[in-house]
Amino acid sequence: MSDGVAKDSAEGSSRSSGNHQQQPQPAPLSRYESQKRRDWNTFGQYLKNQRPPVPLSQCNCNHVLDFLRYLDQFGKTKVHLHGCVFFGQPDPPAPCTCPLRQAWGSLDALIGRLRAAYEEHGGSPETNPFGNGAIRVYLREDDKAKAERGERKGTEKGKKG
Ligand SMILES: [Zn+2]
């Protein structure tokens, strides 16, 4: 067992009183925690893959918005374009070339997790790009657009499919 040392030397934290790391990770991470960690790694990877790479300290809400758009390509929610014969149908009977998007709810949850992770990694709440109003607007517009197209899955409670 490697005991001692383990003081992460100046990992960019300007705050000095952050020495609350005495427990050697007893329980496995909760689902939320592991999901959060995975999201954070994905986002970090995304920033690194930018040309040029974006240091976290310079990450702003525009990077986050780009990240959300980037994630859309991995989405499973079909968003038909105007003019598509399946417009308004969430599950088209045949393939079409319209883009896939992330479901609004999953993006909303993702932002919540990244917002928490950002502050856990030493980010300041005041400059937290995930808490930026532009993100809210983006998510809301996205949601509204889907609702107008009739593509939003019924998430309201009390609604029977
Ligand atoms: Zn389509």
From TrEMBL:
| GO biological process, any | response to light stimulus
Q: Which residues form the ALOG domain?
A: 31-158
Record field: compositional bias (Polar residues):
11-24
Renumbered to this chain, region (Disordered) spans 1-35, 141-161
State the Gene Ontology terms under molecular function: DNA binding
Query: Can you list the GO cellular component terms from the UniProt entry?
Result: nucleus
PROSITE patterns, per the entry: ALOG
Where does it reside?
A: Nucleus
Q: Tell me the InterPro entries matching this sequence.
A: ALOG, ALOG_dom
Source taxon at top rank: Eukaryota
Sorted keywords for this record are: Developmental protein, DNA-binding, Nucleus, Transcription, Transcription regulation
Q: Where is the composition biased (Basic and acidic residues)?
A: 1-10
Write out the similarity annotation.
Answer: Belongs to the plant homeotic and developmental regulators ALOG protein family.
Q: What is this protein called?
A: Putative beta-lactamase-like 1
